[in-house]
Amino acid sequence: MVFSVANVAFDFDLIQKYDNAVPRYTSYPPATELKDGFTSLDWEFAITESNQRQSPLSLYFHIPFCQSACYFCGCNVIVSNNKDAARSYIDYLSREIDFTSQFIDTRRPVTQLHWGGGTPNYLSLEQVDSLWATINKQFTFADKAEISIEINPRYVDRNYIFFLKEMGFNRISFGIQDFNPEVQEAVNRVQPEALLFNVMDWIKEAGFESVNVDLIYGLPYQTVHTFKETIQKTLALDPDRIAIFNFAYVPWMKPVQKNIPQAALPQPHEKLEIWQMSIQELTDKGYVFIGMDHFAKPNDELAIAQQNSALKRNFQGYTTQPEAELYGFGLTSISMLEDTYAQNHKRLKEYYQAIDQGILPVSKGFKLSRDDVLRRDVIMQIMSNFYLDKSQIESKYHLDFDTYFAEELIEMRPLIADGLVQSNYDSIVVTNLGRLLVRNIAFLFDTHTPAQQQQRLSRAI
Hints:
It is found in: Cytoplasm. By secondary structure, the protein is of the alpha/beta class.
């Protein structure tokens, strides 16, 4: 049976057929391809090449600390109630910024900045001020730069929100996950409804330009009925963007998830019904389904960029800054240049040691080939805009698309027959049926993800 919702169509049989484990394609090649042996000198050379391109900059700063563990979490975090832990970290992070900026041509404008975590508001106001001063000392911001931060609404007050706005942040994101108290209790993320509405009121009062909230479907004790209530309360908050992530239960990879009662998790068919209902409710209220797990108001930059086929993806998700090269700072952070990816150490000891030794604290990296860059372009256009202009690829890379990707186009035939995608002499178009399975379509062009790695990936739905 097929159900149509706005520009998305649900065919439950097809979804079950294609619900395989495939990359999320926040990058291509995926982050699983980052290799040990990538050195500080390799990274210095990549930065030097980046300077020659004079691309604008996107900066990411990772604050890994959390005061308590959320059982659904799949992020790299350090759980500690001892706030002293952040003091040393901010010192080392500032030293990394100062050191790395010696290699970056900082005349290149910063068009995008994001603080993520962990919990960035784990930091005191003094620590926020100190880190902000270090960043501003080294980098130059473009007019109308996107400057965003994630917060945990349980550990913030009105003064903190207004301080962030006065510092220069103009975008903000916070996690709701679910309004239902039973669900919150089960995932150790208890935050009363009144608290969430208070936080949103402060954000709007402070005058932030854009607000994003995160939800998760597939958590214990969720039903279509209870999650519909969460959707309705989220709509009452009136955020500019809403992300609804699919919970991946992988306790063998994330041991904290062992605290979740597995028997209380919704079954696959109910998860699909929850997802269908969510898309229906949000699109009925005017939100645009951007794809994957994101929704935005029609006048939001994400929606406008997608309309203009200018949306891209990077390690932070969808981005409206396709030309910017991403530099990540802090523990575990990933940088994404035109032809090189690099990741910092994942353990504080190694991260601190590298900085003490006066070397860039990278632990892994990957140098993209021309074929990688080409395939990334194809995959990201399909993932972001549900459309690929073959002639544009042919002109940019000086090749005949159908000849270069002859094998992939043959492998695409079953997906065409199932109505997920259309391919002709000048374009590839993801259909309404294919939008929910766009990762499967992109996967056809992936030469880096072998079958043995797929067990480590989240399923398509």
